[in-house]
Amino acid sequence: MAKVQLPVQKNQIIEVTFEDLTHDGNGVAKVDGYPLFIANGLPGERAKVKVTKLNKGYGFAKILEIYEKSRYRVIPECPIYEECGGCQLQHLSYEGQLIAKEKQVSDVMQRIGKIENVTIHPVLGMESPWRYRNKSQVPIGEREGGLIGGFYRQRTHDIIDMKECLIQVEENDHVLKKVKEICGKYGIKPYDEKSHKGVLRHVMARYGKISGETMIVLITKTAELPNRKKIIAELVATIPNLKSIVQNVNSKRTNVIFGNETKVLWGRETITDSIGEIQFAISARSFYQVNPEQTKVLYEKALEYAGLTGAETVIDAYCGIGTISLFLAQKAKKVYGVEIIPEAIDDARRNAQLNGVENVEFAVGEAEKIIPNWYKQGIEADVLVVDPPRKGCDQALLDTIMQMKPKKVVYVSCNPATLARDLRILEDGGYQTLEVQPVDMFPMTAHVECCSLLVRTDK
Ligand SMILES: C[S@@+](CC[C@H](N)C(=O)[O-])C[C@H]1O[C@@H](n2cnc3c(N)ncnc32)[C@H](O)[C@@H]1O
């Protein structure tokens, strides 16, 4: 095969102008149409860069000097921003982040979805885009005899020890600090990926922003946690309003964080929190949106798009602990929710009871299997809401939606690329996308959430 002639060579130093940002926040500059991905570059900037790696269709470079800075460039607030892989956009002002995210959504709608005649609204941002995350989940390692914990350095598994995280609630910083101190003091060894030895793999802290309640989850390789009683006693004595300490055991060689065995070490199985008028019980393994303030904005948009009058049957696919289901149930005749994690459905049923909601029914299983079964049994939705994980909806679910033909589909998504892909499939199956509302659930990171409204076009 003939060798492809590329317009640049490895180690070449060139001058570029940044045109765009990638979905993960890197700058994009092109040389004769050949894209170079370059960390820290912002659209409009001119820089001297060194080419570091070349592939057939794209390459990488690093910035040596920025000649012309973007008017949206700011000095990152976090002292470990350059090393830590947790945030990607702290060098871009918040105004600039919202502009970039709107463009990201609009670009994929055109490029991947080929969606026409859709209104893409400006991103709904936060008034104060810091300290919003209610959940911290970090790997644990060791340095000079002490435990360390924090995000991985980008594209590595090196842990950057984190004293505080400016997008986390301060309560979670305190939990991580105390867990490192106390577990270190009682000789708990961190898990080592290479040797597959050690005890503590990850620590998760979850904080109810409204309730003030805290849960700590210790994810361990071994079922045994040495000095368990002493560790629990010290955590209980030092963490204010701690309601639950849970251990999850993951003994596999894997990058997946949670294992299958979960046990309560102290206190309750769940903590509670509320969004708007609705209260939620949240257990260790259940998905709960990380930015409760913006979750309210997102769910209100989903409710608005659903346009319920009280007469509708609604299906909420990928329902988690029933958050959207309970929001919708306030205005629907009946809501059916489906979710794959059994503990989340236990929480969803508990949450329905907690809020005195009787017009909801939940099922455990894969949405792509349960919803086709419901359809066979005669359960048909007027409005179908989906909120899948990043990989988007399973084809079997999309096929069922196109057979069932609900009047409206409300598609909530944390990945604009898979959203655009699925919207194309639904448009080819008789739907039209009317509106996409991006909501900034994850300031300082390159992620953006969207709520979209589709309607059936046939009569
Ligand atoms: C983005 S979360 C949304 C949860 C919920 N709607 C909320 O807002 O809190 C996606 C959920 O889908 C669940 N899930 C993943 N794959 C699934 C599948 N094949 N069928 C049903 N649920 C699934 C996950 O466990 C997670 O709770």
UniProtKB/TrEMBL annotation:
Domain of life: Bacteria
Binding residues for S-adenosyl-L-methionine: 289, 318, 339, 387
One Pfam match: tRNA_U5-meth_tr
Keyword annotations from UniProtKB, A to Z: Methyltransferase, S-adenosyl-L-methionine, Transferase
Active-site annotation: 414 (nucleophile), 414
InterPro entries to which the protein is assigned, alphabetical: MeTrfase_TrmA_AS, MeTrfase_TrmA_CS, NA-bd_OB-fold, SAM-dependent_MTases_sf, TRAM_dom, U5_MeTrfase_fam
Sections of the chain in a coiled coil: none
TRAM domain boundaries: 7-65
The family this protein is said to belong to: Belongs to the class I-like SAM-binding methyltransferase superfamily. RNA M5U methyltransferase family.
Protein name, per record: 23S rRNA (Uracil-5-)-methyltransferase RumA
